[in-house]
Amino acid sequence: MSYADQRETKTSSVSLKAILWGILPLILLIAIIGTIAKVGTGIESEPAAPIEVVNVEKITLNDDGIQVKVLNSGPEEITIAQVVVDGAFWNAEFSPSDTLQRFERGTIHIPYPWVQGDPHEIKLITSNGLIFTGEVAAAAATPTPTGKLFAQYALIGFYVGVIPVGLGLLWYPFLRRFSVKGMHVILSLTIGLLFFLVIDTFEEGFEMAAEAPGVFQGTGLVWFGALLSCLFLIAVDQSNDRKLSSRTLEGSRVSRKIATGIGLHNFGEGLAIGSAFAVGEAALGTFLIIGFTLHNITEGVGIAAPLLKERPSWKTFVTLALIAGGPAIIGTWAGGFIFNDTLAALFFGIGAGAILQVIYVISKMILKESEKRSLSPVSWLNFGGLSAGILIMYITALMVKF
């Protein structure tokens, strides 16, 4: 056997040993866990009370009565033994069954004559005597999914998202008249707008997380979604920087990123509007439409700011308006028909991370240009622009908060 063959054989042997050492801890870990699961810890104790968790995910009111969608997020199976509506016991039908396994969903059909505008309380009593409650603040028939309602929700999302962003983009010719320092002020204003949006997105995400089943760790989903989406977009951006050397594309790319981040935020606004109409709060839904429309017109300024050194076509502006405003349509559909607190929390986290990445990119633009022209990146003018952006968003948000 030659020296080369001996060396190759030795290398293969070393590699095999390395693989075995890598697998051995996993095998031992599985064996330990299996032993504990089968034999137990040796400590004998009875739980003081059964551990059961029933989450009321959605309450629907229609001509047949009340439908309650529930989720068993506890560690064991549960059986819903009794249903109480407004203090009275009522018969109910269960689909697929009154017994739910862990993470299984079910629907409870209650033939209860609910009253328009009245509050109602539904209590679910398990076979172990635990009580879980769902409430209807003001009863109203839940909208039935139809083609007409689908189109109406789409129109609402268009009014709230696409139109105000498009109107904000119309300031582009006026913004082009600014000097380099003026452009930096506008970019700083954009950072202020986005900074407010990222805080607002986090708050919305945490509100959804509080409503989500605890087993899904909604707050963690918000943070994980934000961190991973931000780092992912930064990695993609760095990869593109190595492939694209033309600086003429820089402004357009940043504008698309801003539009994407704002679009994710506007998806959340659509969720709020659709959910309001889905539970019969039409007055609140209309209030949100007006408030969000006024609030979102300022977002067009932030999207247009990185384009001030370029001469984009009208198609570019239409595309940006659709990217930023279009998700409001999807959000309105989701909120009106298939809203889910857990997924909403994760999505808000992803949106917050995307906006943070855009803030990072714009800040780099200001620092790079300031260094090139020997300007101060944190001048009083830039500080004023950032403060103005936050103030503008805060004032317009007062029209939405309640």
From TrEMBL:
Keywords: Membrane, Transmembrane, Transmembrane helix. It is a multi-pass membrane protein. It is found in: Membrane. It comes from the Bacteria. Its main location: membrane. Pfam families: Zip (PF02535). The chain crosses the membrane at residues 18-37, 150-172, 184-202, 214-236, 317-339, 345-367, 379-400. This is ZIP family metal transporter.
